[in-house]
Amino acid sequence: GSVFSNVVQAPEDPILGVTVAYNKDTSPLKLNLGVGAYRTEEGKPLVLNVVRKAEQHLVNDSSRVKEYLPIVGLADFNKLSAKLILGDDSPAIRENRVTTVQCLSGTGSLRVGGEFLARHYHERTIYLPKPTWGNHIKVFNLAGLTVKNYSYYDPSTRGLNFQGLLEDLGSAPPGAIILLHACAHNPTGVDPTPQQWEQIRHLMRSRSLLPFFDSAYQGFASGSLDQDAQPVRMFVADGGECLIAQSYAKNMGLYGERVGALSIVCKASDVASRVESQLKLVIRPMYSNPPIHGASIVATILKDSNLYQEWTVELKAMADRIITMRQKLFDALREKGTPGDWSHIIKQIGMFTFTGLNSEQVAFMTKEYHIYMTSDGRISMAGLSSRTVPHLADAIHSAVT
Ligand code: PLP
Fold first, then answer.
1. Closest to 178 measured CA to CA, from 204, 211, 200
2. ipTM of this complex prediction, to 2 decimal places
3. Per the record, what is one GO cellular component (predicted)?
4. Is 133 among the residues known to form the active site?
């Protein structure tokens, strides 16, 4: 027998497993609204034109080699990534108080940040919004932190439970780490208003809670990179410390290139440089150093004003298409007279709609309509098109009636 014969079959990942099931379905009607990846009106994955151009630049530049990057990644990429999230004129950057390391997309950035905190920060508890992206829990547990949660979503309003959030953050132990979705909260699509953010900031600073921002959707929520970065910039403007995990998966469509960054904003430059020296000790035994191609694409785009401009236009087009799909789905349900208030479809922000459908209704829609989504009723608006909206509306209608 095999020395591994006692290994038991693990369940599929709750999010990526949706695609596995979808791929097995042979119906021509099948629709994958599970995974958070952008699709065109034709239902196809999209490589941005500006990414194709940047790749052409890279290919044509024969001086480029495939040497290892440093442990912290590509220097230009790191500098430009910090600027992208913190703003061109950020005092924290000017004062050299920010250390940025290139990591394996958003997930890798969260993991490296989590491991650093587990080793060097005095409070090992991280509070996650309830609900949150499912992988957060595993990432931070395995990084060595204790995971708790704070109230976030109110099912009765399908909006923010702001009172509960303030109460929970108000009773977290001083110094606790608080994971905040920078914008386009996944899975709920519910974000605090700017005024609510300001109250959250004030409360967190007064209780010395440490913000850890997950910025996986900058530009994808509103279509504006600057607007979507406002919550983070608000926290950095007060001179306090925070961590930021950035992903270029969605906003540059670089999913499989695994390109992201972890920034740690400190109060002084000598602290930032010691922090960076310790980040290197986290990264080196984990994967040694990050891959070069995706970061080179990002750096090429961010440092060229024409390419940057093109990117913002393509990014806005993706965000706008998603917003249009929200309206179309909402209109289709209203036209059918589907029972219930569906206004959250147009109020929620970013890639996902948290429909409020329960797991039985989701299972029904998968079985009868070949529509795939996570069992919490989250649908990826980016996977929808004008052609498929009526099919989804039919499915929702019969699931709730
Ligand atoms: N954080 C959130 C909230 C996400 O939704 C995702 C992706 O779905 C990620 C992080 C990480 O994505 P990636 O590792 O592909 O950058």
1. 211
2. 0.99
3. mitochondrion
4. yes
Tokens of 301: 């785009």
State the pTM of this model. 0.96
Task: Tell me the pLDDT tens digit for each residue of 193-212.
Answer: 999 999 999 999 999 999 99
Residue 86 has a pLDDT of 98
Tokens encoding 326: 């929200």
Please write the tens of the pLDDT for every residue from 223-266: 999 999 999 999 999 999 999 999 999 999 999 999 999 999 99
- CA of residue 183 to ligand 1 center, whole Å: 12
- Residue 105, ligand 1, Cβ within 6 A: yes
In this predicted structure, what is the pLDDT of residue 16? Answer: 82
Residue with tokens 């403007």: 237
- Tokens at 239, concatenated: 């001179």
Integer CA distances (angstroms), 20 to 12, 16, 123, 364, in order: 8, 7, 38, 18
Residue nearest to atom 5 of ligand 1 (CA): 186
Instruction: For the chain, state the CA radius of gyration.
Output: 21
Cis before 187? omega within 30: yes
Task: Pull the structure tokens for residue 101.
Answer: 């390391």
CA distance 351 to 321: 10
